[in-house]
Design a protein that fits this description.
Structural class: mainly beta
Largest sheet: 6 strands, mixed, barrel
Strand content: 25-35%
Helix content: under 10%
Number of strands: 12
Length: 253
């Protein structure tokens, strides 16, 4: 799992041990269930790192077990699957990045008899760029309106995601049920002057308003100007965690 959605393994908010249902975006009939067992430091937000077995279930026509992966290779999976002039699998190392375009969501654990549980074995894994989908749960978070918030005149709009940490840039501990936020690096700056400031969040077409406190910074490789990374509690005021990404407007208070 990518670092932001994997979270801190020492806390109760990490996705370590959770199961995800992964589907091939181009053919959603091809899917696999995978258990989160580690963090992929090179993976961007929304991305996951699957075993070769998992990749094979998503794209059964591609012989992933026979492919050689090399992070410095300029060749990609497309070079091996080109319908007109494919390169030979046996002699063409490819990059392990962007192997399959998938959608995924947190899922219940599969119902497997203990006697049939596979024993973990080291496997070569390959990251795939993915996006999140809505979960199938029928439970929705109850929304509350912040008491008479007074925003500043300047409004910002950007992507809002969620993360799992319980401490960060501002060097204070917090809970994922707290109404807190990590501000993008461009607007947070290098210092800690923004720590503790309040932000009013709104969503177009919704009457929900949520006030959050700045406790962290979201690095530029994950958050562009205008983007925010919310605690799970704050995110669920607007949508289930399986939504993954929201478009929110916000302002300093």
């Amino acid at each position: 799992m990518n670092p932001l959605q994997f979270g801190d393994i020492k806390s109760d908010n990490s996705t370590c041990g959770e199961w995800v249902l992964v589907k091939n975006r181009e053919n959603t009939e091809q899917s696999t269930l995978a258990k989160v067992v580690g963090v992929c430091d090179e993976c961007e937000y929304g991305s996951i790192d699957l075993s070769l077995g998992g990749l094979g279930e998503l794209v059964p026509d591609v012989p992933f077990q026979d492919i050689t992966f090399n992070s410095t290779s300029a060749h990609t999976i497309a070079d091996l699957t080109d319908p007109i002039n494919p390169l030979p699998v046996a002699s063409t190392p490819i990059s392990p990045q962007d192997l399959v375009n998938v959608v995924w969501t947190l899922s219940d654990a599969p119902n497997i008899s203990p006697a049939l549980q596979p024993q973990p074995t080291p496997t070569q894994s390959s990251p795939t760029i993915s996006t999140t989908t809505s979960t199938t749960t029928s439970t929705t978070a109850t929304t509350t309106q912040a008491p008479s918030p007074t925003p500043s005149k300047q409004q910002f709009t950007g992507r809002a995601t969620w993360y799992s940490d319980t401490t960060g840039f501002c060097e204070q501990s917090y809970s994922q049920s707290d109404m807190i936020v990590a501000v993008n690096e461009a607007q947070m700056g290098k210092g800690k002057e923004m720590c503790g400031k309040k932000i009013l969040l709104t969503q177009k077409g919704s009457s929900v308003q949520v006030v959050v406190t700045v406790v962290d910074m979201c690095p530029s490789q994950y958050c562009s100007t205008g983007d925010l990374d919310l605690s799970q509690g704050a995110f669920k005021k607007f949508a289930d965690l399986g939504k993954g990404v929201l478009e929110l407007s916000w302002s300093w208070m």
